Fold this sequence. Notes:
mainly alpha
Amino acid sequence: MLCRLTKGSFRRLLPELLNFGCLPGRARGNSLQGLAARNDVNEPLRAEVVVWIAALGSIPTVAPDAAPLPRAKALLREADYIPRFPKDRMVLVHYFAASSLLNRFVAKGAARKAEIGEAYYLLGVIESRVGRSIWISQTASCFEAAIRTAPGEAFAEEA
């Protein structure tokens, strides 16, 4: 039952998490609050959902013309202080928010190559922390894009 509940719930919640910057403040977390209030949600998941609701409330909306790269880096720094163990799902909101900003930034393609390369690098870092693919991980693809886009930058060497 939990797998079905979680899978269906997350499918409906992902658009909310990924479009966090486009939602008015009071609309953020409404679906999550409904999930937390359900009787059939176990306590570990409920605890994570409560943290996600708080995280959504703490992340300010981002203006469309704002510089997304510095904001994404700040979200990743914040996420570094939250986890209790590797792959802790408590930081998913931070990772989804940063990923959303970075993907939009890369899609625009209007920045310098070094900035786009860094965005790909950060997407690879995020994917390495939250990706759960058993087939092909996107981490390597993101790191490869970072290296190909800006091979002379410091992050390319780390990738």
